[in-house]
Amino acid sequence: MRLLSTRIHGIIDYIAGTFFVISPWVFGFANRGPEQWVPVILGVMAVVYSIFTDYEMGLVRRLPMSAHLTMDVLSGVVMAASPWLFGFAEHVFLPHVIFGLFEIGAGLMTQRTPYATR
């Protein structure tokens, strides 16, 4: 079931992307390792592809919403699995898993067509 409108999803994109970037310092795992850089890189990517998405919150509007949502889900999978993929699960894993599941959920629960084009 697609509960989130694309407009609400867009607002969440910018807030979550920014929060992913600052999270290593907020939660105390900013030690210049992959545990820091995974959320920073994925957060920056989320903000950048949000800017280019064809939805109410997009500024350039070149990326289809369906591609954006697919990128959200794939990014969420990488984020959630990153503690084990990059070997830092013994140090920190919960923020990455929570962020990843949040991103997957947002991607799966958002309407695929912006309101303005329905």
Please tell me about this protein's structure.
The chain contains four helices and no strands. It has helices spanning 6-26, 34-51, 65-85, 94-109. Helix 2 (34-51) packs antiparallel against helix 3. The longest helix has 21 residues, at 6-26. It is elongated and about 45 Å long.
Summarize the structure.
The protein has 118 residues and is mainly alpha-helical. It has helices at residues 6-26, 34-51, 65-85, 94-109.
- Helical amount: 55-70%
**Share in β-strands:** under 5%
Secondary structure tally: strands: 0
Give the CA-CA distance, first to last residue: 17 Å
Could you list some keywords that capture this structure?
single chain, 118 residues, mainly alpha, 4 helices, 64% helix, elongated
SSE arrangement:
Elements: H1 6-26, H2 34-51, H3 65-85, H4 94-109
